[in-house]
Amino acid sequence: MTIRVQPAAFDPGAELNALHAAQVGIGAVVGFVGYVRDFNDGRDVSGLFLEHYPGMTEKALGAIADDAQQRWPLLRVEVLHRVGALQPGEPIVFVGVASAHRQAAFEACAFIMDQLKTRAPFWKKETTPDGARWVEGRASDLDAAQRWRER
Amino acid sequence: MIRVQYFARYREALGLDGEQLAWEPGWRCLDDVRRRLLARGGAWEVLADANLMCARNQELCALDTALAEGDEIAFFPTVTGG
């Protein structure tokens, strides 16, 4: 399991390829990349700042990845999240999961993102023409995380 | 002593990212500390937020989670990563 929280930009393609590297038992790799959009809740967004809780962030992401490994037979898991100042179009988060078969990889990747959205201590502040504003949490994110409880 | 941390919108409203508080023998759970802070009035009203989240020793918890001297706790708004 690899957990990285970093201000530096990253290459999602390189991360995805590295998940498979030198392990021929892997039959499926699923990757999710989240990007900074230039528009949100009716306003142009020219920049984003990601605040986090150093220490807890890494623990929370590790706990989420552990949960995923308990539920599915995974061979590799990587969660990479940027913090600090970002520009529209930049990748903000990468979740990559490798397993022998596709179903586990698809499900575990979705699970990790749904949990990250509601359990990992990150906060987004957007720069808009009207000034900077904190992004509000969404009820739909809570619903998405909740759906895994029934399984 | 306990350590209390504030993040994001709360940190800005309070002009403070964290502080040490002298332990009070009556404290049983995180909500006891939150109510002590709310009693400061003014900007501290931000901790009455219905969407407040909290953590004890860097793990998400509920406001009624038991508290012990030496803990690090945190209050913050709904998380918005990803």
Sequence-ordered SSE layout with sheet pairings:
The complex is a heterodimer of chains A (151) and B (82).
Chain A: E1 2-6, H1 12-20, E2 28-35, E3 39-40, E4 43-44, E5 47-52, H2 56-71, E6 74-82, E7 84-86, E8 91-99, H3 102-119, E9 122-128, E10 131-134, H4 139-146
Parallel strand pairs in A: 1-6
Antiparallel strand pairs in A: 2-8, 3-4, 5-7, 5-9, 6-8, 9-10
Helix pairs in contact in A: 2-3, 3-4
Chain B: E1 2-6, H1 8-14, E2 18-21, H2 30-38, E3 53-56, E4 59-61, E5 72-76
Parallel strand pairs in B: 1-5
Antiparallel strand pairs in B: 1-2, 3-4, 3-5
Give your account of this protein's structure:
- The complex is a heterodimer of chains A (151) and B (82).
- Chain A has 151 residues and is of the alpha+beta class.
- Chain A has one domain: Aldehyde Oxidoreductase, domain 3 (Alpha-Beta Complex).
- The longest helix of chain A has 18 residues.
- In chain A, strands 1-6-8-2 form a 4-stranded mixed beta sheet, sandwiched between helices. In chain A, strands 7-5-9-10 form a 4-stranded antiparallel beta sheet, with no helix packed on it. Chain A has a two-stranded antiparallel ribbon with strand order 3-4.
- Chain A is globular and about 50 Å long.
- Chain A contains 4 helices and 10 strands.
- Chain B has 2 helices and 5 strands; from the N terminus they run βαβαβββ.
- Chain B has one domain: Ubiquitin-like (UB roll) (Roll).
- Chain B starts with a strand and ends in a 6-residue tail after the last strand.
- In chain B, a hairpin with a 2-residue loop joins strand 3 and strand 4.
- The mean pLDDT of chain B is 97.
- Chain B is globular.
- In chain B, 20% of the residues lie in helices and 26% in strands.
- Chain B has a 5-stranded mixed beta sheet with strand order 2-1-5-3-4.
- At the A-B interface, strand 5, helix 2, helix 3 and strand 9 of A face helix 1 of B.
